[in-house]
Amino acid sequence: MTSTTLLTNPLREGLQVERSADPCVVVIFGATGDLTKRKLIPALFSLAEHQLLPPSFGIVGFSRKAWTDDGFRQAQREFIEDERLNTPVWKSFEEGMFYCPSEFSDASGYRKLGELLARIDRERGTQTNRLFYLSTPPDAYSEIIRQLGAARLVAGSGSKNWTRIIIEKPFGRDTESAHALNEEVNSVFREDQVYRIDHYLGKETVQNIMVFRFANGIFEPIWNRRYIDHVQIAVAETLGVEHRASYYERSGAARDMIQNHMLQVLNLVAMEPPAAMDADAIRDEKTKVLRAIRPVSVEEARKYSVRAQYSQGFVAGKQVPAYRQEEGVDPASLTETYCAFKLLIDNWRWAGVPFYLRSGKRLPKRVSEIAIQFKSVPHLLFGQTADDQLEPNILVLKIQPDEGITLRFGAKLPGQSMHIRWVNMEFRYGTSFGVKTPEAYERLLHDCMRGDATLFARRDAVETAWKVIMPYLTAWRQSPEKDLPLYEAGSQGPVEADALISKDGHRWRRL
Ligand code: BG6
Fold first, then answer.
1. What is the torsional sign of CA 131, 181, 263, 257?
2. Which residues are identified as catalytic?
3. Neighbouring C-alpha atoms within 13 Å toward the C-beta of 51
4. 438 — pLDDT class (breaks 50, 70, 90)
5. 263-270 and 279-292 are packed helices; what angle lies between their axes, rounded to 10 degrees?
6. What is the pLDDT averaged over residues 332-347?
7. β-strand pairing of 394-400 with 404-412
8. Would you say residue 258 has pLDDT above 90?
9. Rg (CA), the chain
10. Which pLDDT band, with edges at 50, 70 and 90, does 3 fall under?
């Protein structure tokens, strides 16, 4: 981006007004894992480059491996381009990185951590503000939380310094385990210290759903059952299970994508306008949507959902193996890599409007989008010939890639007669603003360091989201093996999912 573009694009004005975070130390548990070098460190470094980190800042990696400070620093360079590493910003960022080797269950490791943090506070002026980040396998969460409490590393309510904890998903694997984990977390941390991360909420386009709905006068009046026929939310991936079989085998698509990311997106699409732009007001409205989702019996769950698994096929011209042939996957695995749901929201705004959700791996394209399909006109004036198809207006909020918004409407085909063509009116983030949108983790880490929990999941929402999907998980668990359909990798998904939506006279948007 040149400085001329900066000056000539009026849409970019005001892009750099965010305030920098409080002085603090970020302690990453599970720091030798992939997430740290792929996402967390690049996000923190990008904040440093944009001067959004305070000068008094530090990072501590805490993990079992016997690394040194230097080893930790070296490992973090992998996902940062060379030209960004050879800069004074990286040098000072790197000097603030430390490593504390310890088992998660070893109390003496937390004592060492306490001493290291006290030293960083003295040397770097980080003012005893601490952000703990749990990036370990979930079975270590309880232990780490207990140890942090026992080592007195969590500031009490009277303290002028803050302690916060970010917890990665999966947050439990059913309603009971999520509840039990919440109890454990809240026995050491107050709820206002807890930040349950859902990286979808950090995506610019997901945040834009609220701006689109509540900053524009023209959409909200038609955002309801009188004008909207149905809503489709899709998250399609071309990737397979990659190297995460041990996690994914116990999770599956519904736990991995629907319980968290997709229900969060649905909440933003369906919520009422919040009373204020603050964390609790917004999260209250989102949770009300979850509460209004019609509960289903296990029997109904079978009728309103489809799960499936990919078999071998071609994605982007490359042959890919079946899920059951992937490394680390049980050759008789019943884990779903695709799922689709029809959900109904029983409230005044949405009564009778189906929300169709689908997500899958090894689909033909990577697409995340929300499509709002409006009701068709009540009386047909045009479109009398076979050439003219009467289509509904569709508003598509494109989350990724090609971030933007498209409205589909009918236009007159130029010429003597009245024929219709369906055209798209497009807004594209990239073209309009001409800036690279920040990574979700940048926004979320920065918000947490500023104490803003708006884009994090609250306890009640997490537990309610589990309640929403439990009947489906139970129905699938009880179904015989033959009821797990297969879909060819690279296809649009299983035919059973087409049947789910076509029963209502609709069809999925093509991926
Ligand atoms: C993660 C899931 O939460 O989200 C992955 O565990 C999935 O299985 C990923 O691939 C998708 O995220 P994104 O940002 O690439 O759409």
1. positive
2. 261
3. 5
4. confident
5. 100
6. 97
7. antiparallel
8. yes
9. 24
10. very low
Q: What is the DSSP string of 238-267?
A: S---TT-HHHHHHHHHIIIIIIIIIHHHHH
| Tokens describing residue 110 | 């937390």
DSSP notation for 398-467 = EEESS-EEEEEEEEEPSSSS--EEEEEEEEEHHHHH-SPPPPHHHHHHHHHHTT--TTSB-HHHHHHHHH
Instruction: Report how far apart, in Å, the C-alpha atoms of 37 and of each of 42, 91, 143, 290, 469 are.
Output: 7, 17, 24, 34, 32
Angle at 19 between CA 73 and CA 272, to 5 degrees: 110
Q: Name the pLDDT band for 20 (thresholds 50, 70, 90).
A: confident
Q: Is the dihedral of CA 221, 354, 492, 439 positive or negative?
A: positive
Ligand 1, pocket residues at CB < 6 Å: 237, 256, 368
Ligand 1 mean position, distance from CA 115 (Å): 36
| Interval between CA 40 and ligand 1 midpoint (Å) | 15
Assess contact for 162 and 169: CB atoms under 8 A: no
Return phi, psi of residue 12, to 5°. -85, -10
The answer to whether 452 and 162 have CB atoms below 8 angstroms apart is no
Ligand 1: centre distance to CA 319 (Å): 22
Q: Are strands 130-134 and 24-29 parallel, antiparallel or unpaired?
A: parallel
Instruction: Quote the longest CA-to-CA distance of the chain.
Output: 85
The candidate with the shortest Cα–Cα distance to 285, out of 371, 368, 213, is 213
